Amino acid sequence: MSGFKLLLSVLLVFLSLRGSLIAQNIKFEHITDKDGLPQNVITSIYQDSYGFMWFGTQNGLARYDGYEFKIFQNKKGDSTSISNNLIEGIVQDASGTLWIGTLEGGVNSYDYISDSFKSYKQGDSGLTSNDILCLEVDEKGTLWLGTLKGGLCIYDQEKDSFKE
Question: CA 83, CA 77: separation in Å to the nearest integer?
Fold first, then answer.
């Protein structure tokens, strides 16, 4: 038994040294609005299944491909633009749809092919509030929304709407 303890101790020391060596090779890059972000206040971060990094800000949504940013902001009169610039959460569901929660603008689904958004707002889509505070996808792939003063909402994919 003491031989096992010695082997285990040596293995743990090796793994901790290996981990610290790997950590020493990690480099971070500081990215700001000077690099293309719409602003420096980041409210949410998400990496999608394509490898894109998405950054929610108080002035729009930014998609980063590792080289440059593409900024998405609300454009009045354009129903395919994101519904509001106050981004609170980003998540991707099991079908690959990217969802963006906003304050005052409900929730948006992003279409990668058309590079556009579909908005879901209180009243017309079953949402109980336009103030989305958080989004989560459970182990079954179901999208849940936490709202301000409207409780929880769940997305019904068959009806393409939300319910309490």
Answer: 10
Residues 115-124: what's their mean pLDDT?
A: 93
CA separation for the pair 94, 73 (Å, rounded): 25
* Amino acid symbol at 44: S
**pLDDT for 115 beyond 60:** yes
Rounded CA Rg of the chain: 21
Whole-prediction pTM:
0.81
C-alpha span between 152 and 138 (Å, rounded): 13
Q: Name the token pair of 78.
A: 């354009």
CA 106 → CA 9, 11, 84, 88, 132, distances in Å? Answer: 53, 51, 8, 10, 6
CA angle 145, 75, 53 (to 5 degrees): 55
